[in-house]
UniProtKB/TrEMBL annotation:
<keyword id="KW-0472">Membrane</keyword>
<keyword id="KW-0560">Oxidoreductase</keyword>
<dbReference type="GO" id="GO:0016020">
    <property type="term" value="C:membrane"/>
</dbReference>
<dbReference type="GO" id="GO:0051213">
    <property type="term" value="F:dioxygenase activity"/>
</dbReference>
<dbReference type="InterPro" id="IPR051821">
    <property type="entry name" value="Asp/Asn_beta-hydroxylase"/>
</dbReference>
<protein>
    <recommendedName>
        <fullName>Aspartyl/asparaginy/proline hydroxylase domain-containing protein</fullName>
    </recommendedName>
</protein>
<dbReference type="Pfam" id="PF05118">
    <property type="entry name" value="Asp_Arg_Hydrox"/>
</dbReference>
<keyword id="KW-0812">Transmembrane</keyword>
<dbReference type="InterPro" id="IPR007803">
    <property type="entry name" value="Asp/Arg/Pro-Hydrxlase"/>
</dbReference>
<keyword id="KW-0223">Dioxygenase</keyword>
<dbReference type="InterPro" id="IPR027443">
    <property type="entry name" value="IPNS-like_sf"/>
</dbReference>
<comment type="similarity">
    <text>Belongs to the aspartyl/asparaginyl beta-hydroxylase family.</text>
</comment>
<keyword id="KW-1133">Transmembrane helix</keyword>
<feature type="domain" description="Aspartyl/asparaginy/proline hydroxylase">
    <location>
        <begin position="160"/>
        <end position="322"/>
    </location>
</feature>
<feature type="transmembrane region" description="Helical">
    <location>
        <begin position="6"/>
        <end position="26"/>
    </location>
</feature>
Amino acid sequence: MFDGTTVLLLGGAVLLIILVLILEFFRVACVKREAAAVAGTTSLDSTLCESKDCVRCAKNKEVLRSALTRLSYHASDSRVSNLSTSSDLVSLTNNDIAMVTADIRASLKKLRDQVDRTRSEEWNAKEGTDVSLPIVFKCSGIREQKVWSLDDFPGMNLLEKNFTQIFLEFVHLYKSPLSETTQFWKTNQTNRGVWQVVMLVDQGRKTKASELCPITMSLIEQIPYFMGGNMFGNASFSVVHPDTEITAHYGPTNCRVRCHLGLKTPVEAESKSCSLWVEGHSLNCEEGKCIFFNDAFLHSVHHRGSPNSGVRVVLMLDLWHPDISDAQRKVLDYAFS
């Protein structure tokens, strides 16, 4: 039997637990309302693509709101970090989380009133700027560098050394007459011409097509800079046909650097007719060589070669920006997983 004092103590404990649960319920509700208020209620109109699942074009605000809510949970409840062993968030400091959270809030605020850059006066006004203008998320405090080199990514020559094997897997995937293989290829929207892409890693997730390229995937997974498991991370084969113009556009985030490994280029006589333009820099792709650029800057691709000049083929993959620390990677992987 319990005496009166024990009963009162137990009753008080139960009431306290109930109060804590009620406060937590209201805290979560406030976080969601805050995220929605910052982000606004309408989605960003975009002419870049029509995919309902595109992070850059269709789900930008939804992605940022979700990331903000995830980090708000973690920052206020240690139990969440204990459950997040896959991201190793236990080792992160509140400062790491606070910095990324502040960047997400700033990105949400920018999206609230932003019009589609492809139709605004800002598009032409910003050409030549030294500041990146990512469509979704901008990370502060990192270098605003447009073009990078192999020296900035030690070990990336692994791709160059295995160029032949990667190229053969591309040919197998591209030339296969099987319907279950041809369905993997998609035609992206372009200003003019034909631009085909097959995704191996699509917004952080491996695709069925990746199973047909085991050597390529094995090499990608050995690269410590690859943004695997993060929705801003992609890997794909890209084929640009002659007489094609890929409209100038901005990528979704500045926290990545995009790599192009040249697999096939137009015939030598017309090699200069095909190039990648990044805010005043003209980059020519070479077979077996990597080029690196931050696609958060305005960039485009043109292939003005003759019909017989051949296609331009690259392996595209997204790498972590060199200035993103290991701790920031973990926070960003958790927020944008």
